[in-house]
Amino acid sequence: MKPFNILITGVGGQGTVLASRLIAQTAIELGALAKTSETIGMAQRGGCVTSHVRIGEDDISPLIPLGKADLLLAFEPAEAVRNLKYLKKGGSMVVNTRAILPVTCAMGTGYEPEQMLEYLKKQKDRKVIFADAGAICEELGSFKVINTVMLGIALKNDLLPFTKEDLEQTMRKFLPERFQEINRKAVNL
Amino acid sequence: MKKLLMGNEAIGLAAIRAGVNLVCGYPGTPSTEVLETVAKNNKDHAIHVQWSVNEKVAMEVGAGAAYAGARVMVTMKQVGLNVASDPLMSLAYIGVKGGMIVLVADDPGPISSQTEQDTRRFAQFAKIPVFDPSSPQEAYDMVEAAFRLSEEKGVPVFLRPTTRICHACATVEIAEQWETHPVEGFQKDSKWVIFPRLSYQNHLKLDGIERDLSWSVSPFNRISGTGRKGIVTSGICCSYVKEALDSIGEAAHEIKLFQVGMPYPFPKNMAKDFLNGLDEVLVVEELDPVLEDAFYPLCGERRIKIHGKRDCFTHVAGEFSAELAEQWIRKMLQLEKAEEKAEEIPALPVRPPVLCAGCPHRASFYSVKQAMKGKKAVFSGDIGCYTLGNAKPLDMVDTCLCMGACITIAQGIHNVEPDTKNFAFVGDSTFFHTGIPGIINAVYNETDITVIVLDNSTTAMTGHQPHPGTGRTMMGEITEKVDIEAVLRGCGVKHVVSANPLHLEEAVKAVQQAADFKGVSAVIFKSPCIALFKPERQFQVESEKCIRCKKCIREIGCPAIAVREGEVKIDSSLCYGCGLCAQICPVGAIGGTRHETV
Question: What's the rounded Cα separation, in Å, for the pair A181 and A185?
């Protein structure tokens, strides 16, 4: 597997950690090396979170340097904009269009999700895929699978260095029995 | 066998493979998963694993086991080491029989801590060796080496990973075979009793260990490359430097690199070899300038220029990165880099961490705020999720210092400002950790404070560890629950009531009564952390009834409530059914329904 960097970003509680583990584990199952670095601790409580996944090289930092990510998986539009600087020119991103408004917003400091989406649409040298992952979660009856829904969209667009079958195999091996069914559905929707 | 492991998992598995007999500690980000990994993989319960009440207790439990010849690992975060420093300083003098690793996780940034203190400094201070891993694999390999060194020298040793090692996952090669380490048992000897005369002799012994090790060669200290310029680095910065050198390419080929995996005792001999033929050195290390300070006199004697934190060449505080390392290396090599223009982006929302939707702490803070409206009161907070009660609109944490300090800070303020009502908010796990001596102090010295115990039945912030009040242990056993109310009464607190914070009226009344009581009073707010159960109901705003006063938004700051398209809405993906908003709505526009989505 050639070197490939994926940055996953969202808001604490959206399950970005599981998404990065599944990607890294799948790469390792296929014989590649992988590293991840995740946000754990206080920021997980509704703060900005990022997970870095680096596939294919051994002696590198667990954090992706600016402008070196091949793929950005953004679980929230404003977080996509915040972390765009990590995505290289010519890279791709999948953006969940459903916004999470922070409490500070509710108290008057504005945040217009539309403005973020407009800005992302204008990206010329980066491929942008929008998806209402929130709606897919509603259809599935759980917001906890937003991580596998996002992976499914990336795979459908051929943006990850492995196939949907490879990911499903990892999920069978590493996810607890009771989460298998719904996550399999999430990847396939 | 190759496995994808978090640094902390690698350390835990390495301890098991080294035949560790006892592992104890107190949860603290980023160290927590080490002990959890040992507990999860504890076949036949062969290893005694415990969350101790605090780090001092853990260090002493660990010391006892090591006296008896057991291999021991004690785990904590850097500020936990401050709590454990009393036993540790003496233990360095007394020494151990079985190998003892003190695993202390440092947190550059800091990302989840009160300080940016450096455990390598603590190692110098306590005069015990420290291992500083640069990757999860190296952390794994260091565990066995650390046990051996501890046994060979008869002193405890530090293993100090930082956040980006602890919480990074990497492909780690782990051994198939496991060692066993039989415990010889405690042998009576005067050497286990610390006395001034013995301490004098043992001080000489510690000095001898430092000298021996500073002249010896550790496989974790490595020199590579050649050139007139050199870089010294350690820990996670090794990978930042290597990535930066790769990125610079050709121009950085003539660089000599010294990776220091064992910074104390300082590898003096190797350092001299490294400096041979150099005329300029850059030190890239996070937290304190530990290596830089050790290199200073050597560079001075040789008239070699040295850069680092002391000349503000690198950053004094905060986390480093590959980008920063590249910037500093280019500066030393006098290479220009074309400045790339930053893209202009729309203004981004600020997203500070907040109490979760449905968190019972929100209701507890709100009820105290209501009960004390218009009165002169100071609210002392403590370490845990509930530190987040400082955020607006709750704004209910006026002080926060260290574990257990809310109870004692409140007393200090009250002693000199007696017309103030002083509240102390302490979590259940923090109460057991270091809260109790403060309670006794208030009773003994007759200080009129009100203690609010936020009992959510878990150690939430660090990822839901059990504690003495939960009745569960890390050996998977059900044990006696230590009753917080009985402890308070036993300490002499005369007014103690328990209340459910989610019943607002009852909660406010409980606080008012406690505040009116002359002397030490306590309210125990009992309601489980939302991570411990599934929501049974959810709330919605009936838009015909809602008068858009936004009281629910202005007063409680629940992340599930927001204005969308002009209407107040509750996000069904976040609502956990606590019902606080429904109780404060002036027109009864918020109602609950049975929960349908998971």
Answer: 6
